[in-house]
Design brief:
alpha+beta, about 30% helix
Length: about 70
Amino acid sequence: MWEYKIINSSDAKRSGFLTGLTVEDVEKYLNSLGKQGWEIIDLDFQMDPTMPGGPTHFHGVAKRPK
């Protein structure tokens, strides 16, 4: 059995350790979810093409064994 989590860039901002949403910041957030046992099964990024490396907005789904 699985449990699921909807993730998005708003969650990353509220986590308290991200000051922005650069690609590196998003990687840190996703790695923190991995340490909690979450596996990302779907992720959609929207990047601002005028700013290389960020800002980035995303949303997706993660799962882990229940």
